[in-house]
Every structure is written in structure tokens, then in C-alpha cells.
Amino acid sequence: MELGLIKPILTALLLPPSGPVLLALVGLVLARRSRWAAWTAGLALAGLWLICTPAGSIWLARHLLPLPAPVDLPALRQASVQAVVVLGGGVLPEAPEYGSPQPSAATLARLRYGVRLARDAHLPLGIAGGVGWAGRGGVTEAQVAAAVARDELGLAPRWTDDRSRDTAENAAVMAALLTRDGVRRIALVSDSWHLPRAALEFRAAGLEVLPAPTRLPLPALAPWMEALPSPSGLERSHHVLREWLALRAAALRQWTVARGFTGN
Do 9 and 92 reside in the same domain of the chain? Predict the structure, then answer.
């Protein structure tokens, strides 16, 4: 089994909601033998409550990750950006209402923003995304996103990477396509919590990167609703914690490669 195939399994087991729930279950099973086990179960459930709230997820995002600021046309010009690159964020392999695969909500949000930046700045567009390690196969993120960009948003991409399976491969494949055409300075579009790691990977691949975030963690509900658990709060906390761990793993991997500890 390839190492990449293990990542989605570990992610599902360790991150919320599975991780805190499993910890609470272990604590409850051992509660009769140890008072500390009972406390562990209680703390796990309290922690799960907090990270399921929108307010808790916003706090995590702002304190665990170096979130980038939004960008606009003057920022693109100041950075002398040569292209806009959109990273895929999932695909719906079956969408019966359309009769064809469709981009996920995350991919569509990134794509709309990327197309807007590219059109406003008169820049070429690149789209990166194959089938992730946990994907079903078949249609790729880049194929679906490119079709929507061309047919619905009116801007066909110049470059598409439909072979990569994760962010590191996105960076390597897209960097090869871009540098072949003399492009080294890009605006990189993805979710705000994904961009710290994505920018790290693309810079390591030799590109100059201006992060262009979507889905910034901001309050969207009444204050009392922000303090109650919700699916959106849980989803955002899951993404933030995943990226916090993945960012450190990526930095460690690049550190070992830079020092020649490649294992070869």
C-alpha cells in the first residue's frame, strides 16, 4: 500500500469528530478503573463541543495557522503576478441533476475567485487537481473545473494538471508546466486554511507565490449561534486541524530533503 493511501485513513480516525469520540469512548470504558480516564472522557467531549462551534473553529484557524490576507487587483500588480493558479478542492463524481460530474462547493468557490482575478488582471489561468488519495477515480478535479471555467464562467484555462494526487504533487506538476512557459510569479487560489501549506509547497517547487485565499474564517451567524455546535463549525475545525498537522509534516519533509536525509 502506498503511503499516500494511509493519509485519508489516519485523517478520518484522528481528527474530529472521530478522534475526540474515540478518546471519550476509551475514557468511558476505563472510567471504573481510573478517575483520570473519566476526566479524559469528559475533556474529550467538552473539546468536541468547542471545536464543533463556529466560534471555536474561527479561534482555531486564527491561532494555529498563518492565514493570508485577501488580495485584490492592486496587490496582483504590485507582486507582478504572471498567472493565477486555482487548486482543486474536491469533485462530485455523480451529479444527476446536471447529468455530469461537478465541482464541489470548495472547488467552485476557488474557481469563481480565480477566474475573477485572472479576468480583472488579464492573466492566464491554471487549474491543478487530479484524483485524491481517497477519491473514487475516473473524472479529475482539473477536468471538471476546467469545463466549468470555460463553459459557465467564460475563461478557458491555459494550464491544467489532472495527474496530481495531493498538494505536493500539485506544486511539482504545475511548476513544471508554468516554468516551461516562463512563468514564475503566481497568485495561488485555495481555501485560507490550505494556503499556508500550499504556498510552502509551491515555493519549494521554485515559484514566487502570492496567496489568494477563499473561505476566510469569519463570523456569519448571530453571536449566540456562533457558540453552538454546527456542521459548518465541525467541518472548518476539521480542515484547520488537518492543515496544522500537514503544514508541520510538509515543513519537516522539506527540512530533511534540504539536508540530504532522503532515505535513499
Answer: no
